[in-house]
Amino acid sequence: MRFGAPFDRLAPAAQDAVLRWFMDAPAAKLRGGFWGLRALVFMGYYGQPEAWGAIRYAPSFSGSEFLHG
């Protein structure tokens, strides 16, 4: 709406400007909602086992190995 076109039809620089505006929005609720959405996107990406190698994450599925070791 700010640039006169839907987000997916904006140039990459304009998309970046829109996302930066949301991230730094003066309204606390809007800013909080954007950060909440960002957290969900990160959880969706980093929760994929295929991404664990790229970030060097090696989860333990036993859950109690440090308690009994």
Give the CA-based shape: elongated
**How many strand elements?**
0
Radius of gyration: 19 Å
Task: Please identify the structural class as seen in this structure.
Answer: mainly alpha
Main sheet?
Answer: none
Number of helices: 3
Distance between the termini: 57 Å
Which residues form runs of ≥5 with pLDDT under 50? none
Query: Percent of residues in helical segments?
Result: 40-55%
- The SSE order reads HHH
Beta content? under 5%
Average pLDDT over all residues = 81
List keywords for this structure.
mainly alpha; 51% helix; 69 residues; 0% strand; single chain
Structure description:
This protein has 69 residues and is mainly α. The protein has a domain at 12-48. Helices cover 51% and strands 0% of the residues. The protein contains 3 helices and no strands. It has helices at residues 12-23, 28-46, 49-52. The protein is elongated, with a radius of gyration of 19 Å. 0% of the residues are buried.
